[in-house]
Amino acid sequence: MLKTRLISLVKDSVKIGSCISRTFLSAEMSQPEPIVIDPSADHKGTLIFLHGLGDTGHGWSDAMYGELSIDTYKYILPTAPAIPVTLNMGMKMPAWYDIFTLSEFDREDGPGIKKSVSYIHQLIDTEISNGTPSESIFVGGFSQGGAIALYAGLTCQKKLGGIIAMSCYLPLRNDFPASCTTNKDTPILMCHGSSDPVVQFRFGQMSSILINGFNPTIKFKTYPGLAHGACAEEFRDIKQFLTQNTPK
Q: Catalytic annotation on 51?
C-alpha cells in the first residue's frame, strides 16, 4: 500500500509561508491573483497549477517548495473565485465551476468551465508576454483543478510543454476532438488513485481513453489503494514528467 499524503477538498484555514515570493488580490476581490514562486536558478520552465474544490493556491505551495520543487521552475498557483456550489447545498467556496453531482458528469456547468478556461489561457498569454516560450509552460491541477487544466491545455492555441491531470476527468468531453488543434501531440500525464471515492477511477480512465484517440502521447498512471489525494510516488512521476519534457 502506498503511503498517502491526502490533499483535502476543503480547507478551513491555510498557513501562508513567508517564502512565497509574491501574491496579489484583484481590486474586484472576486478573482484572487495567483501566488507566484520564482525560480532560484535560471528560469527554464513554468508550471501553472490549479487546486481542487474549496482549496486555494496557498494549499499547494508546500508541494511546490517540497515534493515538486525544481530550482529552474517558476510556479503560478491561482485561486478560484468563491461561488455557490450546488453539490454542497449552495455554499460559497473557491471553485472553478459549479458541480451538480459526482456520480455522473452528464450535467455540467459549461459556462463556468469555459470562464475558468479563459482565465487560464490569459495566465498562459501573460507568461508568454513576460518572455517565457509557450513550450516551456505546463498546466496542471488536482481534482476540479485538474479537469480545468486538461480542458485548458487541450484547447490552448499556443503549443504547450505539457499537461498534468491529477485525480480528475475531461469535462465537456463532446467538445473533443474538434476543440483540440494545437496540442494534439503535447505530452499529457494523468494520475489517478484506484480507490478514489470522489472522482471515480473509471472516469479518469475513460477520459484517458477518449484523449488517446486524438493525442496518443497521453500516459495514464494508476496508484493502487490511493484515495482522493496524492502520494510520494505520484509526485516523483510528475517531477520526472516535468524534467523530461522541459526544453533544453
A: no
